[in-house]
Design goal:
Blueprint (H helix, E strand, L loop, with lengths): L7 E5 L1 E5 L2 E8 L3 E3 L4 E4 L13 E4 L2 E8 L5 E5 L3 E7 L4 H12 L4 E7 L5 E4 L2 E4 L3 E8 L20 H17 L1
Parallel strand pairs: 5-12, 6-13
Antiparallel strand pairs: 1-10, 2-3, 3-9, 4-5, 6-7, 8-9, 10-13, 11-12
Length: 180
Amino acid sequence: MGAAATLERRFATDLRSTGRRLEGYAATFSATADLGAFRERISVGAFRNALSGDILALLDHDAGKVLGRTRTGTLELREDDKGLAFSLDLPDTAAGRDVLALAARGDLGGMSFGFLVPEGGEEWDGDTRTLRSIDLREISVVSAWPAYEGTEIALRYYRQHNGSQRRARALRLAEARQWA
């Protein structure tokens, strides 16, 4: 990659829970993120070559709060037509319990992922960058607002949230982003 690469992070908001397992999407292909200085999209297939390594699941990108990892099987990742899907078995730690409690209340902002862009992994068209290949390092459960629209965050455990609850939460998130 030449010069020292800078780890980049992007956010999404699709999260569900069954017991101590969280599932959802850490990134979606259908969304374009407005990152201020530029816009960004993720191409279908961008994660394909990155899923064989040891990827961590963190809380708020904090390496001191590991929630799972692919090497141990507590984190499973796959790319499908929608985006980067994940399934995470949360540990019985303070961080794991916090994530479950915040998810149950609907207080989590969403998901994020930390990545590097390998040489030739991006394409620019004016001020829009399309990520064609991503060197994925970690996914994170985050309390901040997502950069990428088009996904949702919901808790599914003993009861299912219905569509109106998800829509109401999406509206609250959109309103909060206006003030951020």
